[in-house]
Design a protein that fits this description.
about 150 residues, mainly alpha, 2 domains, 5 helices, about 55% helix
Length: about 150
């Protein structure tokens, strides 16, 4: 290093581009420094890697993996039934469309699940299924009565 460079280095800070891709998006072949960048957050480099890989992957893969079991399956079906009853809004377009046929079909599917799994569920799963069916059937009857009055 020359004397001028040493003075500048002592006086301020040095900016070094350590990105793996150039401005045009092409991968850089040379690695200038093998030491990790100095940062207050230890996950700064992996976050940059995730951003680059997330752009290449489809958007739906960003959701965390679900712990899929019988209870989450029952909750998923009941949530769909509530959406068809117009009780909750559609997460995509924020509308509340009522489709009584689809709601009845989902409630019937939950009833079939109750019959077919009788004796094979633990107390928590059986209780959840019973409560969901009871609640959905009441809401369905109320919705049908409201639609007949109009």
């Amino acid at each position: 290093m020359s004397a001028d460079e040493e003075k500048q280095e002592k006086r301020g800070f040095k900016v070094e581009d350590r990105r793996r891709f150039s401005e045009s998006g092409e991968a850089r072949s040379e690695r200038r420094d093998s030491t990790p960048p100095e940062s207050s957050t230890p996950s700064a480099a992996p976050a940059a890697d995730q951003g680059a890989s997330a752009a290449a992957e489809p958007r739906h893969s960003e959701a965390p993996p679900l712990d899929l079991n019988f209870s989450t399956f029952v909750i998923s079906l009941s949530t769909q039934a509530l959406a068809h009853l117009g009780e909750i809004e559609n997460p995509i377009d924020r509308s509340r469309a009522v489709d009584l046929g689809a709601a009845k079909q989902l409630i019937d599917i939950l009833g079939i699940l109750k019959d077919k799994t009788k004796g094979n569920l633990d107390a928590t799963e059986a209780g959840l299924l019973d409560k969901m069916l009871y609640d959905l059937r009441l809401r369905y009857v109320e919705r049908v009565r409201r639609s007949e009055q109009v």
